[in-house]
Amino acid sequence: xxxxxxxxxxxxxxxxxxxxxxxxxxxxxxxxxxxxxxxxxxxxxxxxxxxxxxxxxxxxxxxxxxxxxxxxxxxxxxxxxxxxxxxxxxxxxxxxxxxxxxxxxxxxxxxxxxxxxxxxxxxxxxxxxxxxxxxxxxxxxxxxxxxxxxxxxxxxxxxxxxxxxxxxxxxxxxxxxxxxxxxxxxxxxxxxxxxxxxxxxxxxxxxxxxxxxxxxx
Length: 217
What we know:
Strand order of the largest sheet: 2-1-3-4-13-12-11
CATH superfamily: Class I glutamine amidotransferase (GATase) domain
Radius of gyration: 16 Å
Shape: globular
Number of helices: 6
Helix content: 10-25%
CATH topology: Rossmann fold
Mean pLDDT: 96
Structural class: alpha/beta
Low-confidence stretches: none
CATH architecture: 3-Layer(aba) Sandwich
CATH class: Alpha Beta
Strand content: 25-35%
């Protein structure tokens, strides 16, 4: 039986993510926990995130989640970050004048969207990366966003690139809002992440979660 853990560190729509995973994988065991052993040993780990970058990082580190993510990536065990759970995978983020280091697994910086109105809230399309696993069969779908900040590109080396078991070429899917372009999703070996909320994205989000689970089960 496939085992899935939603990491419960106090930030994120954890209940809706648990329900979404249960719906797309009814035969899987889905658990909401911060237990280290369960999070390390699950077939797939989901790291949600809602709120400010620095607060999410503080909460993740306090719950032992940073070490768990590093260990899973080092061991080629799948991790999926969602919303701020994607952002904290980058080298750093700045929000409301506060600069904070991220996990450094994706190269780049998270900053405010350049658009007349923020947050970017609602349904939007994506420009899917070639050979994407997450978006296979979903290239023309729309996904649900709620965010004011994002990474705009992977434009520098990841600070903790050495955590990966080998060099993975990231597949980057982009979104746009106003005149701004931002990272909508990244697929890098065992580590994948989305800026939008698949658990709020209807059938398109369900399809993406199925694709993620099928990639390792």
